[in-house]
UniProtKB/TrEMBL annotation:
CDD domains: ABC_Metallic_Cations
Family listed: Belongs to the ABC transporter superfamily.
Alphabetic keyword roster: ATP-binding, Nucleotide-binding, Transport
Name of this chain's protein: Metal ABC transporter ATP-binding protein
Lineage: Bacteria, Bacillati, Actinomycetota, Actinomycetes, Micrococcales
Domain of life: Bacteria
Region (Disordered): 243-265
């Protein structure tokens, strides 16, 4: 049997009295795109923290390609695209600097970048179609472009597992389509991708499989199965069913995110 790219087994996490993950288990095979969905506070970011080895579970364990997550992080095999809120966009770093950070994990921040590092950064920028923005301060990109800059950081570091926390929040449909295409291409090249999203409409085009999270994994199946209103109701509450009926759709939750535009950049 193939070793799962991401294996979360029986993970429980508390923040003081708050139970954020409750014996959650999840397995994602290499080359798959998996959507992680759940309401606010259902534990998605905590799940990412556990997978990245940034927090120590009270119970259970995580393996990345059969390795300890701290080791995977050190080796650069796991990359992370944070929520926009988690980034200080005013920081005086260019897009190229951000992508170059993907190379520091392997070489230590004290070493000057070498030709191979610059080449890897160039290739990553090209892959995410940001070459022309390389010199721009990171905060002066559109929402979708910022996300792609962080994907490029993961590509430059050679990550084979990518975690994306809300990559579609605050981006327009065109940026969403560009990101979806990019993630699908990376997966066909063998990368494993776990994406948390509130945008349920994005899931069928994006993901091979989806996980419903509510402190524990309520369901893990195809997007079509997970998006059935009766299954979404398990994670989002019964009002989802009412909205689904009124829209005559199996994709009941429209993303309320603010729009921005790549063209505005
Ligand atoms: N540092 C913290 N200290 C205390 N409680 C926390 C902390 N971080 C998260 N929590 C709580 O843990 C639970 C899970 O939070 P988490 O951020 O993982 O959820 P989420 O699904 O990512 O939410 P969102 O969709 O809003 O980003 C929530 O009840 C949250 O309030």
């Amino acid at each position: 049997m193939t070793t799962p790219a991401i294996q979360v087994t029986d993970v429980t996490v508390h923040y003081g009295e708050v139970l954020a993950l409750d014996h959650a288990s999840l397995s994602v095979a290499p080359g798959r795109v998996c959507g992680l969905i759940g309401m606010n506070g259902s534990g998605k970011s905590t799940m990412f923290g556990a997978i990245m080895g940034r927090l120590r579970p009270d119970t259970g364990n995580v393996l990345i390609n059969g390795e300890n997550p701290a080791k995977a992080r050190k080796q650069g095999t796991i990359g992370y695209v944070p929520q926009s809120e988690a980034v200080d966009w005013a920081f005086p770093l260019s897009v190229r600097d951000v992508v170059m950070m993907g190379r520091y994990g392997g070489m230590g921040i004290t070493r000057r970048p070498r030709r191979a590092d610059h080449d890897a950064v160039d290739r990553a920028l090209e892959r995410v179609e940001l070459t022309e923005f390389a010199g721009r301060q990171i905060g002066q990109l559109s929402g979708g472009q910022k996300k792609r800059a962080f994907v490029a950081r993961g590509i430059a570091q050679g990550a084979t597992t990518l975690l994306l926390d809300e990559p579609f929040a605050g981006v327009d449909k065109r940026s969403e389509a560009t990101m979806t295409r990019l993630l699908r291409e990376l997966a066909s090249d063998g990368a494993t991708i776990l994406v948390s999203t509130h945008d349920l409409h994005a899931l069928p085009a994006l993901a091979d499989e989806a996980v419903l999270l509510m402190r524990r994994v309520l369901m893990h199946g195809s997007p079509a199965e997970v998006l059935k209103p009766e299954n979404l109701a398990l994670a989002f509450g019964l009002d989802v069913l009412d909205r689904a009926e009124s829209q005559d759709s199996t994709e009941p939750q429209h993303s309320p995110h603010a729009q921005d535009s790549e063209d505005a950049a």
